[in-house]
Amino acid sequence: MKNKRIFKFWFIAILPLLSLACGYFTVTLPQPAIEQANELIKKTPSQIQATYVSVFDKATPLLTSIEEEQLVELYKRINPSVVNIVTYINRGALVSAGQGSGFVFDSSGHIVTNSHVVHGADAIDIVFSDDTIKEATLVGEDMHSDLAVLKVEDLPENVQPIPLGDINSVAVGQTVLAIGNPFGLGGTLTRGIVSALGRSIPALTAFSIPQAIQTDAPINPGNSGGPLLNLRGQVIGVNAQIETGDGSRTNSGVGFAIPVSIVSKVIPTLISTGSFHWPWLGVVGGSLSPSLVQAMNLDREKGAYISQVVRDGPADKAGLRGSTRQDLVNGHTVEIGGDLVIAIDGVSVSAFEDVLIYIALNSGPGQTVTLTILRNNQQKDIQVELAQRPENTQEYYTFP
């Protein structure tokens, strides 16, 4: 009896010590196991050993951390709403053309993916995680943002839309997840962090996609169009591009996702009208450099410098000016004489990217924006009526 009391005391005392030693590590057990464990302190050592074997000799995953539990549950919840997209082209008969990923956007059966995944396809199949295959129709696509919307009839049971997150809550260093079909391997989950924010990446046109998210979460061919998720299971981006550096098609730790700010702006319009029209300013430029600051004798080091104005474009019609001459500074040729944008609609501008993002997200064709500029170190406000991006952009560079 004495030995039993000593063992009973030892078992109760060691539990908090184990908790302190293990930190955040936990063991997830089925409820029957927990109930059996609660009875251990009432048993003899031999009885405890027998109970231990019966509790742990189960086909139950042993999760070692709270994060693992979170990832397992998130995958179970989200994966059914991530799809494999298979495209076909007609060569007398339908032949496979490629594949990618996508995710369910709403309960009406709309699916978001990249435009480059489905552009030019004659037929599209959607493969769900339970191997259900449905034919999809193309609702609309936007080459400027590399986004497209597909639609299927009658979503499979228990498939729910994935909610969108908020770009303002995304931070460098936070954990992100990608679910997709790299190399056709359906339902693949990979994990990484947000490596950087505010990148500009090439679109399928001569323009750029602003505010892109850079991540080291492994994404590869076949991941395109799939969701980049936060740990709440919200879409913060659509995986679109990778930087390989060596000409290969495999991931080297630098991937890019179209930001949710662009997704939430473009997708509803594609669903309702089938197309999206972006505003256009019609300038080429860049952020200030020390050489440019010195050459133009500027009293500030931040702003968006206009080096070229497209002839007959909105900026040209409003009277904005690009570079007029060249100067030599520390052995470098610098184009000078252009306007320096320091604010747009009263919002300060620190870099050229700021102008691109503001116009893309806060305006539309036909709207007027006020640019505050420095010309010959004199501040001036110029109103510009934005136009629609031209269809033929071959003669242009990357203009906001």
Could you explain the architecture of this structure?
With 400 residues, the protein is an alpha+beta fold. The protein folds into four domains: 2-64, no CATH class; 78-151, Trypsin-like serine proteases (Thrombin, subunit H, Beta Barrel), CATH 2.40.10.10; 167-273, Thrombin, subunit H; 279-388, Pdz3 Domain. It is built from nine helices and 22 strands. Strands 1-2-3-6-5-4 form a six-stranded antiparallel beta barrel. A six-stranded antiparallel beta barrel has the order 7-8-9-12-11-10. Strands 14, 15, 18, 19, 20 and 21 form a six-stranded antiparallel sheet that branches. Helix 2 runs antiparallel to helix 3. 35% of the residues are buried.
CATH class of the largest domain: Mainly Beta
Number of helices: 9
| Main sheet attributes: strand count, strand direction, barrel closure | 6 strands, antiparallel, barrel
Average pLDDT reading: 85
Silhouette: elongated
Q: What CATH architecture of the largest domain do you see? A: Roll
Uncertain segments of ≥5 residues (pLDDT<50)? 1-30, 48-58, 394-400
Q: What name does the CATH topology of the largest domain carry?
A: Pdz3 Domain
Please bin the fraction of helical residues: 10-25%
Rg calc: 28 Å
Question: What is the multimeric organization of the chains shown?
Answer: single chain
